[in-house]
Structures are given as structure tokens and as C-alpha cells.
């Protein structure tokens, strides 16, 4: 009797702890999937004492082969090479978040809409709005971090234009219940051609460090706010 009560109590504690973990999703394309900034953000989360309070979610579980992985690194994510925001909005995001219900989502999307889809600024911004609606349908309290896209080496005008509009987009849709903040990975914030690979679109190791430096503090702030920490 005593033992079973103890076991029941232990089970309740375990359930309570599991429920308290915030579910965090990194959503994007190859710049999220195959590059090395995610483990660097993880290191920042460790330093901020947040890794015990979160669980990464997503249908993917991978990291670029050359990346340094900190101990305990959680490699789950929702980065898909070649995917466009336009298609993610229509075909993928509702299903991805229905099963994972993230509390915090960081996303960088749109580069393939430009390079592959030849879409315009408004189509990309509309896709962001549609993605946001799906995130909120799965979890009305979701905190969203939208990343300004990293530049291409030729400073693509559509990417730069969307980046200019992202703060206004975030201000238009942010709410107290589901706040939206911006992580600035753009050329204007300091990402240079020296931080890109020879393919002109993916970050090299310097670019990974830059992206992590831009996203990490914004994510830490969003997590601390959710956890009620100052
Ligand atoms: C670190 O976070 C844990 C929760 O995961 C908490 O119990 C602990 O007090 C925190 N430590 C510090 C130094 O803030
Ligand atoms: C959202 O947060 C409110 C309290 O702030 C809570 O009552 C509600 O259950 C939450 N909804 C979801 C879907 O987590």
C-alpha cells in the first residue's frame, strides 16, 4: 500500500515536470536544417539555465555533420531544405504543430520563395500570416520569434524588402497572449558576405555564429517571459 502510494506520487511528480517543459520549435529551411547555429543557441540556453525547462520539438532530428554538439544537445527541429514559406503555410505547418503544439516557435523562411519560387514580398508576408494562424490554432498562447532572413551575396531585393517589412508585420499581429518578437539576422544587422558559403546563400561558420548571436538572446527573453522569470 505504502509502496503503491509512493509510486503514484512519484508518477504525479514526473507528469508535473513533463508538463512544465516548454516546447520549442526551430522552423525553417536548409538554413535551419543543415547549418550549425542551433547547437550554438543551445549553449546559450544552457548558460541561461534554460535547457532543463525546455524540450525541442519537430518531426526532424538531425544536425549538420561538421557541427560541434554540446553535451545534452537536443537536435529536434522543423527545418526542411528547399521548402518555401508559401508551401509550408499551405501544406505542412498545420500538421506539424497539431502533433507537437509548440509553446515557442522561432522561424526563418522565405529564401527559397525568392530563389526557387520567384515569389514577391506580399506572397511571403501572406505566408508568414498563414503560418502564424496555424501556430495559434495549435496553441493560442504560442510565443513567436520571426527571423529577418540572412542575405544572399547579391543582396536580393525581395529578401531585403521582406526584412524591412518584418517589424511592421510583427507589430501588426503581436498580442499579449501570443507575443511576436523579431530576431535580426539581416545584412543591416551585420551579416556580411564573408559569413556566407561559396553557394552564396548558406551561412559558413562565421555566419552560424552570427545567427546564433542574433537569435539566442531573443529566444532566451521569450522563454524567461513564458516561465515568469525576469
Ligand atoms: C535553474 O533552473 C532550474 C529549473 O530547471 C531551477 O530549479 C534552478 O533554481 C535554476 N537555477 C538558478 C541558479 O537559477
Ligand atoms: C493560455 O493561457 C491562459 C492563461 O494565461 C490559460 O488559461 C489557457 O489555458 C492557455 N491556453 C492554452 C491553449 O494553453
Automatic annotation (TrEMBL):
Single Gene Ontology MF annotation: phosphatidylcholine lysophospholipase activity
Keywords associated with the record: Signal
Segment forming the signal sequence: 1-18
InterPro entries xref list: Ester_Hydrolysis_Enzymes (IPR051532), SGNH_hydro (IPR013830), SGNH_hydro_sf (IPR036514)
Gene3D superfamilies cross-referenced by the UniProt entry: SGNH hydrolase
Residue ranges annotated for the SGNH hydrolase-type esterase domain, each copy included: 26-208
Protein name: Carbohydrate esterase
UniProt organism field: Rhypophila decipiens
Amino acid at each position: 500500500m505504502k509502496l503503491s502510494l509512493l509510486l503514484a506520487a512519484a508518477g504525479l511528480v514526473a507528469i508535473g515536470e513533463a508538463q512544465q517543459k516548454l516546447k520549442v520549435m526551430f522552423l525553417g529551411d536548409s538554413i535551419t536544417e543543415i547549418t550549425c547555429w542551433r547547437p550554438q543557441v543551445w549553449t546559450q540556453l544552457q548558460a541561461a539555465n534554460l535547457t532543463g525547462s525546455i524540450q525541442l520539438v519537430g518531426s526532424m532530428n538531425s544536425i549538420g555533420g561538421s557541427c560541434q554538439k554540446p553535451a545534452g544537445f537536443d537536435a529536434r527541429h522543423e527545418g526542411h531544405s528547399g521548402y518555401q514559406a508559401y508551401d509550408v503555410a499551405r501544406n505542412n505547418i498545420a500538421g506539424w504543430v497539431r502533433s507537437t503544439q509548440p509553446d515557442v516557435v522561432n522561424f526563418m523562411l522565405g529564401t527559397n520563395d525568392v530563389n526557387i519560387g520567384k515569389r514577391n514580398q506580399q506572397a511571403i508576408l501572406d505566408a508568414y500570416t498563414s503560418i502564424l494562424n496555424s501556430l495559434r490554432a495549435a496553441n493560442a498562447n504560442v510565443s513567436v520569434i520571426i527571423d529577418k532572413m540572412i542575405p544572399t551575396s547579391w543582396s536580393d531585393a525581395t529578401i531585403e524588402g521582406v526584412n524591412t517589412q518584418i517589424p511592421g508585420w510583427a507589430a501588426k499581429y503581436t498580442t499579449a497572449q501570443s507575443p511576436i518578437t523579431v530576431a535580426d539576422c539581416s545584412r543591416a544587422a551585420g551579416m556580411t558576405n564573408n559569413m556566407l558559403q561559396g553557394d552564396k546563400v548558406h551561412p559558413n561558420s562565421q555566419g552560424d555564429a552570427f545567427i546564433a548571436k542574433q537569435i539566442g538572446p531573443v529566444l532566451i527573453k521569450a522563454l524567461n517571459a513564458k516561465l515568469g522569470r525576469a
